[in-house]
Amino acid sequence: MKLSICTDVFGKIPFTEMLDKVKAYGLDAVEMTAGGWGGCHFIPSAEELIHDGAKREAFLSEIKKRGLAISALNCSGNPLIDTPMGHAHSKTMRDTMVLAGLMGVDTVVTMSGLPAGAPGDKTPNWIVSTISWPEYDGFNYMAEAVKYQWKVAGEWWKETCRIAKEAGVKKIAIEEFPGALVHNVRTFNQLCEAVGEDADVLGLNLDPSHLMIQGAEPIEAAWALGKAGKLFYIHGKDARIEKHNAAIDGLLESLPVECSAQRNWNYVAVGCGRDLQWWKEFFSVCRMMGYNGYVSLEMEDLTMSVEAGLETSIDALKASISR
Questions:
Q1: On the CB side of 178, how many CA atoms lie within 13 Å of its CA?
Q2: Residue 71's CB: how many other CB atoms inside 10 A?
Q3: Which residues contact 127 (CB under 8 A, 6 or more apart)?
């Protein structure tokens, strides 16, 4: 395995300065956002790089001359909602597939998106309670909403998988993000069923932190995904259940991320949630199940400085990945 980093953590510094920082940390690759919710500080316009071959080659040369690679392009957002944001995310996600193909990048990291609960609605609806009830006058609105959401997702993703294949993208790595339709292994499998024959290009970006905060075990997820040949990418990201709060209020959390001390869980630097023994086992199981690709650090710890979070996480990952 090799180490990469999600470059949004560096903010709006110049592109070449960011690459020099990555090299100084002793990392192997970069994962850059090209659309969606990401900052897009280093790929400000996927469309521009698609249509300007000279600019694209100059961009790639800066990466190559430092001995770095692009582990993946990232375009995480919500293309499944019928709003200006959803339409923009739909376009940039598909543009990212085309750009990845032109750059020779075989993996695009993204999220499934989340539709509204009914035609005409404009607000995404994350339904994670039982849909067995409530029912009124023979109508179960929760079950109907979920049925509608999967219809929307299946149609959009069928077309997007076709576009990705035509562009030469080999892997669409879906991040199992809480708040998205695909947020665990079961819902990922459901997306594959909805897409059908073109789902061979779909796999999971296994971000352990997202499963931790749902009460799932990422090592078991790695086993299941590995057996199915669907472990496409890994984010190196940790989470900590804040036991004094969670013991009272459980794992569901809607407080802003800045309210760290009041939250039931927080994203933290690698090693500040699960210890290094756990991380060694996690990567050992991933390697055993056939994964030998990039581990991309996504640093979102607000309990310490960015620099401290980066150094802590990089040290932990270098000490635990299966090289």
A1: 16
A2: 26
A3: 117, 142, 145, 146, 149
Overall domain count for the chain: 1
Mean pLDDT within 286-299: 97
Dist. CA 48–CA 140, nearest whole Å: 47
Mean pLDDT of 108-129: 96
Cα–Cα distance measured from residue 233 to residue 280, given in angstroms and rounded to the nearest whole number: 17
Is beta strand 238-241 parallel, antiparallel or unpaired with respect to 265-268? antiparallel
Cα 172 from Cα 175, distance rounded (Å): 10
Write phi, then psi, for 295 (nearest 5 degrees).
-110, 115
For residue 294, the model assigns a pLDDT of: 98
| Short-list 314, 315, 276, CA closest to 298 | 314
Q: Tell me the whole-structure pTM to 2 decimals.
A: 0.96
The secondary element (H helix, E strand) that includes residue 107 is strand 107-110
Which of 315, 251, 77 has its CA nearest to residue 177?
A: 77
- Look-up of token digits 């029912």: 135
Higher pLDDT, 286 or 132: 286
Strand partners, 139: 136
User: Which domain range does residue 8 map to?
Assistant: 2-320
pLDDT tens by residue, 156-173: 999 999 999 999 999 999
For the stretch 282-285, contacts whose Cβ atoms lie closer than 8 Å and that sit 24 or more positions apart, written own/partner, are: 282/208, 282/218, 282/219, 282/222, 282/320, 283/1, 283/320, 283/321, 283/322, 284/322, 285/219, 285/222, 285/223, 285/226
State the number of CA atoms in the 13 A half-sphere of 214 facing the CB. 19
Q: Give, in degrees to the nearest 5, the angle at Cα 240 between 34 and 306.
A: 50
- Give long-range contacts, CB 8 A cutoff, 24+ apart: 134-142: 141/117
CATH code for the domain in which residue 169 is found: 3.20.20.150
pLDDT of residue 274: 98
Give me 274's structure tokens: 């699960």
